[in-house]
Amino acid sequence: MKEEIKKVVTSIIAVLILGVIIWFTRPLWHWFFMGIYTFPAIWESAIGAGIIILILIVWTRNYYDATEIIGFFLIAFVILLIILSPFSAMYPQCYLAKNLKTTKITELPEMDTSAVRIVPLVVASRYGEDALQYSQFKLGEGDIVFINKTPYWSFGLIPDGAINFFVLKDKGALYVDMTSLKKNITIIEQEMEVGEGMGIIDSYEWQIYQQRYWVNLENPYFVYLKGNLYIAIPMISYEYHWKIPTFFAVPKWEGTALIDSKGKITFLTPEEARKVLKEQKLFPEKLARYYVDSFQYAHGILNKWFYHYDQLEIADVYGQQNEQPFLVKTKESLKWLVACEPYGEAHGIFRIYFIDAQTGEIQVYEQPKTEALIGPVRAVDYVQKANPIVDWTRMMPVEPIPMIIKGQLFWQVRVVPRDGAGIAYIAMVNAKTGEVVELKTEKEIKEFLEGKYKPEEKIPKISKNITALIIIRENGKEIQRIELLPNQSIEIIPAA
Q: What percent of the chain has pLDDT over 70?
């Protein structure tokens, strides 16, 4: 009897010690507990399996050893999880599809030509790496910030290497101007006590989860405010709802965590964040995409999986480093922009969603089907077709961003080397006609966005030894050039 009591006491003490350890190291297990919290089918299946085992024991009045009980529990748990998982996964998006408020707009908002995206992420990363002169540091994840109303790609200078991960602090931030074809880089040095790429308790995730556990975090970005660096991290929380046969967790924007260089964390509500970070994007990027993706369930689960009536899908171009949503600055406000195609093999524009990057308000522009505008996937194809001379095994079109110019929709596609070492040119694809205009200077880009661009007629230079030059064009494109030397002639045969 004493031995049994001793075993029970020992087990209780072991459980308490384990609980204390888990509590003090809880940020390390956030992925596990948050996974259970946001996917109720897991804990519901565990509870259901436990109830089934109790009923089985009481009903049969048989003695089962521990191995049999564990076996029965696992079988019941797996069966229940298989049944409940699809509902836990689909119900949040079904709920959002019915309850998200959207405002229909009949005209596309004009772009702010003073803050146009030119440099894509792949090129900004290469520019930053080429300019980096710190042997113990590397670039963190890239994100967009605004400095004096100008958009920049922002990269944290984070420790490089396993040992440095534990002993060094973030060095500061590197900024790449998005509005210039030139490599325009700014580095701000300021040591951060808490930040990105630092271990373990110096990590921004560890510090935030110590204070706010039941949230998920977006990627951090470095903002420069009043002469100091801060790290801003959008937060996502969850609301529980019930629908037979399961609970489900619906994500929402919780606010923004702002960390200063001393490691102090200020948790800002959405309203407070709009006052403190006036120029910056605030609404979480992944949440904006999740919201738009939820509209696939606007006509129910059966329609989404079988009938596909009036169903959309986000128009992503395969192989891109940076996918939708894209952040654009319109004359109204800063917005996340998501272009959608009809479900299936169709690649025309179906709807365009604009999510206010500071409030989360959603606007939707539904393109009349008779307009037959091409989408970003086909826009990339048009760029490649328009310039067959380019070696597309070495070059790639990236980040097809919709631009609204004088009420017309264009796809702004950057053509860059596959190693990201610069920008060859900007291709503007008219979504209605498919016409491609290639822009190679900042002056041309600015004029095009302002609706003032006129392509210059280039007069070809003729060598002294050539007496005549014949250029054959088709649809405005030069397809053949014939140079005539002295005493040479050419016979022109009229078409039948």
A: 91
Q: How many CB atoms lie within 10 A of CB 219?
A: 14
What's the average model confidence in pLDDT over 368-380? 81
Contact 365, 102 (CB under 8 A): no
Q: Give, to the nearest 10 degrees, the angle between helix 285-294 and helix 66-99.
A: 80
Q: DSSP for 81-135? A: HHHHHHHHHHHHHHHHHHH--EEE-SSPPPB-TTS---S-HHHHHHHHHHH---T
By CB neighbour count within 10 A (0-12 exposed, 13-18 middle, 19+ buried), where does 27 fall?
A: middle
**What's this model's pTM, rounded to 2 decimal places?**
0.86
What are the strands, taking DSSP E only, across 296-392? 312-314, 326-329, 334-342, 351-356, 362-366
Q: Which residue has the tokens 């660096």?
A: 229
Token pair of 351 as six digits: 């709807």
**Residue pointed to by tokens 């804990």:** 43
The pair of three-digit structure tokens given for residue 429, joined into one six-digit string: 């694809």
Q: Give the helix/strand (H/E) hosting 171.
A: strand 170-177
Q: Which amino acid is at 374?
A: I
Q: Count the neighbouring beta carbons within 10 Å of the beta carbon of residue 22.
A: 13
Amino acid at residue number 368? P
Q: Six-digit token pair at 35?
A: 């996974």
Tokens of 387: 């310039």
CA dihedral sign of residues 284, 289, 295, 296: negative
Inter-axis angle of helices 30-38 and 41-60, nearest 10: 80
Average per-residue pLDDT in the chain? Answer: 89
